[in-house]
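Hey, resending since the last one bounced:
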Amino acid sequence: MLVAIDGPAGAGKSTVARAVAAALGFTYLDTGAMYRAAALARSTSDAADLARLEIAFDGDRVLLDGEDVSLAIRTPETSQAASRLATDPAVREALVAKQRALIAAGDWVAEGRDIGTVVAPDAEVKVWLTAAAEERARRREIPVADLLERDERDATRDASPMVAAADAVEVDTTGLEIDAVVEAIVGLVAR
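The structure tokens again:
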């Protein structure tokens, strides 16, 4: 089974998806970490062949070609670089292929911007996680204008734009505790 959780930056996707996976006993896939790792690789080598990168997960650790890059990929600079890199159709194609290969077997909770629309349109459960822009900016500790710029870039890119799947259930996390959001999504899976 696959639970696809999509939505804009700062909606709580990573935190919620990790907790939903733990509650269900599923494996968690952080696709944003994959794009961040690709951006980090690109920043250290202009010639980095992103299709050949080895991106792996070991618990909460993200490994890039065997090296733990868990902290390095979480900087605001790397996040912005990942958002820009994600507009490249060749990068999206390479990473979507890697994501599909990972989720091909077993039970997964995958989060990103296009899981339910592009990566796994046949996912059994699709969630569109959102929150007010001011709250999302506060969570990310960035100006609202920067967040809205990223939203615009993610939603208007030609390759796999960020958009809710037609059959996704919207969950607005504004003002909600994580446990309430997790409970709502676990309830969707139980149905």
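The chain is about 45% helix and 20% strand.

Sorry for the duplicate.
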